[in-house]
Automatic annotation (TrEMBL):
Species in which this protein is naturally found: Cryptococcus gattii EJB2
Coiled-coil spans in chain: none
Protein name (Swiss-Prot/TrEMBL): Thiaminase-2/PQQC domain-containing protein
Gene3D superfamilies: Heme oxygenase-like
Tree of life domain: Eukaryota
Amino acid sequence: MPSQKFTEYLLNKYADDFKAATTHPFLEQAGKGVIGPKSLRAWLKQDYLYAYVGYIKFASSVLSHLHIPTPLSTPSPNTSKAISVLTFSLANVKRETDFFVSTAKAHGLDVFSPDANDGAEGGLLGEYNEITRAYVDFLHAVGGVGAVEEGLVLLWAMEIAYLTAWRNAKSLRPETLTSADPSSLSQTQQALLKFVDNWTSDEFVEFVTDCADIVDGAGIEIGSALAERCETVFKRTLWLEQRFWPSV
């Protein structure tokens, strides 16, 4: 009987926590197209900061820690795939943050306009709210001093949670919103359609699958000290994801 995949082990063991991280009133309102522009803009700003300030440095750090063999030897298939996944993630997060900003601005949700007051500005953390700052610090810590395997688990955990959350939101989209003439929708609804479709695209699904594959190919043995550290990373990621969604 084949051994259980490490990603399946984590999802099965922490199914309740994963559900809590991927279902939330914010997602429900976003899926139904009834969320207010202020709430959406505030979340977009925090997600942008997480991605641009935290994710880019994190993915770069994990990539730099991969064991790259000498030019005369061939990297393992999993290392080769990890290189491809991480380099794609870096290019993609830059594309995604540009998409955030341009789409938001086109629909009156400019996250960095002077009147985009989301309640997080001017405090000790500047434009970050407390959870965003904690998430960015966690990304930098795992990327900087964690084992490569811990970094790969964190990458997959973030991406599978994000995909699942927005799939859940999209499943609540009413047919009236899907079939409506865009000109009849509010600017916020038009932006949501673009955002949610992008965050549930086939390309993103393929990327998340690749993230899972490199975790499962990393040789993490369930019950080992390394597996316990990776499990801690997964649990912490879910804890942060649960709290990243804003109150609505």
